[in-house]
Amino acid sequence: MHQLNYRNAPPRVEPPQSIRYDAPPNEYRDLAPMPTIRSFLEQQETAPSLIHLFEELSSACQDIASRLQNAHNTNSTGVVENTNVQGEQQKKMDVISNDIIKQKLLALEAVKGIASEEEEHPVAGHSNGEYYVLFDPLDGSSNLDINVSVGTIFSIIKAKPEEDASDEQAYLKPGHEQCAAGYFLYGPSTQLVFTTGSGTHQFSLNTDSGEFELTRENILIPNSTQEFAINMSNQRFWETAVQEYIQDLLLGEEGPIQKRFNMRWIASMVAEVHRILTRGGVFMYPKDSRAPEKPGKLRLMYEGNPMAFVVEQAQGRCSNARNNVLDIKPSHIHERVAIFLGSKEEVDRAELYHKKK
Ligand code: P6P
User: Is the dihedral of CA 177, 159, 167, 299 positive or negative?
Assistant: First the structure.
């Protein structure tokens, strides 16, 4: 069992190795408590204001997790009348989750402003705040009524004192400028996965203590995989390069890739990314001829960029099939992007099929 005692821990050694922590039996917990968000980030010498932001965001998402547990009992899985800026029908829990996170973050001195999938425009916070927080409060909420995992995705970028936090231009920084990013996954357990630029790490909510505890440090995505995720019902709308790539995946051993593939599609990006961080794979949401003016379905600022940061810090890749997502210069806050994300070998291969075209 890996030594859990973090008191006077030696400096972290590189290169990172992926470590799964076997929690000590409860009777030993007081001797070697599991690292928490605070103890872990303090050991990484993270700015105290960012640690506090993480703690407050985690508290908000714990609240969301507990409300989701009772969503069916409180008739909260349905839709509300209005549609959001995306033109999508809003779920009650979308609105509730957005309000919980927005209220918690705007109360923080460190937050200069927020942008949300559920808000048409950014909302200014404290004028001296150091950070902008962009988030999708409840991704995959169409799964709520069937009780399938959903999640919160967040991206944190440094603010500049002279910027106007009510102007979306202030938020439009390429993904490689993020200082932190991650997601909360509301499933059989509540998980938090994040990066601050020093690896990608997983914390699991201990419902007894109410603490998120480190359960996987320096997650590494396997370089190759035999599992892909795409919504096959859109096949006729994809670009030729995507059709040919997926066709070759389906040909398995008899095809040019010469190995059998399995397929998954959960229709909840957070769950797909978590599977890929757990066992590898490639997740794709390509451009679609039904909406040729849109580069993809998923949103760059609060889905593509945060997931790209998390995945790249776990030695995977995230591309729009032509460029690294993290290098895209954003042009508006709700901009969409095509996503090819996960095991490096398959993201590289998907790009190659596009280059040939
Ligand atoms: P489709 C959820 O609505 C979402 O934004 C992602 O979480 C998910 O991967 C995708 O859309 C599912 O899209 O077209 O299969 O319903």
Answer: positive
